[in-house]
Amino acid sequence: MSADGTDRTGQASESGVETIADELLDQALAERRALVQLCLYALDRASAGVVARIEEGLSSIGVVAVRADGQRFDPSRHEAGGTVPTDDLSLQGLVAETEVPGFCDRGRVLRAPIVTVYTAR
């Protein structure tokens, strides 16, 4: 007991537990980020069946694939990997194909999709 009549050991213990819990949470989040990045690396090099399984697993923890096919190209959300000419002016500026899917983790962009965009011939 301290001079003012309070029990400081209980306070220190609670604070220590919170500090350890915060450190463990920070470590777990850092490890999760590293594992998600490793999965994205593997996904880019995998066969179609393995890609589907990795995407399914990532989706189960809140990391979803982003494919922009048919959307209006937006350089703030998409990375242009190429263009494809079209005579149909209604397609101009739309995403023709997603070359490499993007990924979001609960709404936070991990990487933008790389897309092919229709351009007027």
UniProtKB/TrEMBL annotation:
<dbReference type="Pfam" id="PF01025">
    <property type="entry name" value="GrpE"/>
</dbReference>
<protein>
    <submittedName>
        <fullName>GrpE protein</fullName>
    </submittedName>
</protein>
<dbReference type="InterPro" id="IPR000740">
    <property type="entry name" value="GrpE"/>
</dbReference>
<dbReference type="GO" id="GO:0042803">
    <property type="term" value="F:protein homodimerization activity"/>
</dbReference>
<keyword id="KW-0143">Chaperone</keyword>
<dbReference type="GO" id="GO:0000774">
    <property type="term" value="F:adenyl-nucleotide exchange factor activity"/>
</dbReference>
<dbReference type="GO" id="GO:0051087">
    <property type="term" value="F:protein-folding chaperone binding"/>
</dbReference>
<dbReference type="InterPro" id="IPR009012">
    <property type="entry name" value="GrpE_head"/>
</dbReference>
<dbReference type="GO" id="GO:0006457">
    <property type="term" value="P:protein folding"/>
</dbReference>
